[in-house]
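Exercise: predict the fold of this chain.
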Amino acid sequence: MQIASSANRFVLRDLPLAARLTLALFLVSTGIGYLSALVQVHFQHASPGNALPTGDDSVRIFHGQSGKPVCQIERLLTADEKAGWNGTGSMAAAFTTKSADWKKQLRQYAKQAGNDGDPEQAESTLRHERDGERLAVLAWIDAGATKSDYDKDAFSLPEVMKSQPITAGYVTDADGGRVAKIKTILTDRCVRCHTTTDPEDAKAGEYPLETYEQLKPRVCATASSAMSLTKLAQTTHVHLLGFSMLYGLTGLILAFSSYPAGLRVILCPLPLLAQIVDIALWWLARLPDPHGSEFARLISVTQGVVAVGLLLHIVLGLFDLFGPKGKFVLTILFGAAAAGAVLVHQSGTIERYLSQEKAGVESAAKP
């Protein structure tokens, strides 16, 4: 059996023009789709002010905070508001800037006697009261999050909260001390979105908190503060099936290019291999410290390798599809794209957005 030499093997340039144009547009679409995925990663996981997740973000998402296990709601209500408004960041703002009546209450407090119309003083007063609501929920969780306290809508606050301001209507005085209306607080601050009936946020509506039974799995302090195992398994499933097919196709395109065999052997499987290592790190990050957090910090490295590998698949694959004229057109197009990127960078549009994003969150979180 005679093995074909590299000189006469099948390469991309042997394909009809229609097939090559189709592959070229597939590679371009893949690149645009990956950029869109990076934008989603920014909004979902990156800390405000950062374009992409940092090592600390990876630790927060995949490893969690050190110390005792916490329930999901406890994690979300104790996380810094700057962590982002989602299920892996923070929900503390549900008691403040994201609450339905925040702006209305600010205006009313500014008009009250004693505030002298000072908006900063009004916000400080309101924040202290809303913080009392949040702390009351956390105290109930710390005390065991019992169904009886929830059903009675009456939880006896601990002594340490004796002087904590709490919004009127959510707390009453009793012989044994102060009593907080936990169910009412959760209904007003959480259930308005986390409901199956006309939720204000469709995504939040997928996780209803209308009953104690729905609430219980998220208030039992047995879960990790990292991404839930259910969500981690789901994300693993999506990435291994969806992205593996994508990287496999771009790798196969490059495999039939005219580049040296050694280069193709290294680059073609690179994104697939890096993705496998990346996902392995997601799970290894669940290990206790110090190893878990160390594995989590490596995630940004493997994700960077995936991105570089895919970029090489796209660029090298595109240039190998066409002859001199096609390469000239591609060079012009890539040059125009690079010039556009430089102009956007020089305009400071992205930097201004990130700065405003960070400043906005810090302002909202200011006590």
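Check your answer against the key: Confidence is low (pLDDT under 50) at residues 1-5.
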